[in-house]
Description:
Blueprint: H1 3-11, H2 21-29, E1 32-36, E2 41-43, E3 51-65, E4 70-77, E5 81-83, E6 96-109, H3 113-119, H4 121-192, H5 197-210, H6 219-235, H7 242-246, H8 257-262, H9 265-306, E7 315-317, H10 319-329, H11 331-336, E8 340-346, E9 352-354, H12 356-373, E10 379-387, E11 390-397, H13 427-437, E12 441-447, E13 450-458, E14 471-473
Helix pairs in contact: 1-2, 4-9, 5-9, 9-10, 10-12, 12-13
Amino acid sequence: MGASDLLERLAQHRTLGDVPAAELHWLVDHSEFKHTPRGDFAIRKGDRPETLWIILSGHLAIYVDRGFGPRRVMEWRGGDVTGFMPYSRLVASPGDVISLDPSDLLLINHADFPELVRDCPDATAKLVHVMLDRARTFTSSHLQDEKMVSLGRIAAGLAHELNNPASAARRSAQLLASLMDESETATRILAAAQLSEAQLDAIDRARRVCGAVVGELTPLARADREEALDDWLQSHGADPRLASVLMDTGATPASLDDLGAALQGSEFEAAVRWVSASCTIRTLAGEIDTASSRIYDLVSAIKRFSYMDQVQVPESMDVSQGLRDSVSLLQHKARDRSVTLGLSIQEALPRVRAIGGDLNQVWTNLVDNALDAAPPSGHVDVTATAEPNGVVVRIVDDGGGIPEDIRERIFDAFFTTKGVGKGTGLGLEITRRLVLRNNGDIEVDSEPGRTEFRVLLQRAPDTVPQAASSTAHS
């Protein structure tokens, strides 16, 4: 394609068409025309970009894989500009750029950028604006993807944490239904027996005794207890199999003597069954209450963690609850890795001004990384203390540490020491970005056996410094 044809097409370009004619001529004179068929890779992930792309026609898109499959992050059509830009610090493509339609491009090599900046100030200004817009789009995409990764980790933990209380509540509810039948059958027998006040009082006393809390017993102690109940029941002419019914109540042979003296035969057995069912029903109701309370607490934690139904704007806030929720939702991972995860929060911390959802993502990323770094049977300690100007949160692990030769790069985008598919290289970069967005700072010290990340947050302007107080442990 001749220079005059390229110049005419460039003059119609949406982004660069209105720059001075002399600059359009410079762009054409220093460019190489390229046609890319549909499906061609304009650049591969990880390759170093060398050229500016002025798209005359067609359709290109970049697909970035941040750990959960390639996703289209940006796309460009005729009239757009992309590729390597003047003043860009991009050292490697974050994804694959593919031609979705046959495309015509003008390519300008980065070696010509100094001359471009000198001779084409209007074009350069437009290219810098395009680069900044592109950076904002990628940053927004990075933040959203990292938030989804964080929520994915939390969702996995939440499912794990909910399973135990949900299973306990279901199991207790099923047992409760069968015990209700047992209780109703015994009640009908006792009602038909037309018992005296003295006999009813004996049953009520036995119920109160059986309702006492029984502590954990060793297998040997349980066997001895069952044998004693079995002997007592046989001595009173009752079915010895009732011993297994009474095992988990507070009943003892001595506590049942009054009941054995007041009732005989089928009425006695019915009373024992009713007393046992009544006590066990109360116990199961308590277990269901405990399990459902745990479920309620977990759901409340995830709602607070995600700031569900709340606008994400800076506000005066206490970091304590967010730290508790983040640590609570990651306890499953700590248990799976046999790592002790501790939390210590100083009382009466000053409030900070921040976006709650941002801080929760920061805590999750840092604690999750620390759990990955800690060895089996290791420790991760999270502390929050007051500082003269605000609050400092420390996340410390006793892992192998960060090698000195890479310590300066850990906050760089796409840098990761984890294996392929195990890390996006965005966690710490996003963490740092979120901390800075909330007017905070993040620091790291590391040596073999101890790595400490510190997040410093400024005191909310409407709060008054408080005297330091004792430390609370969670």
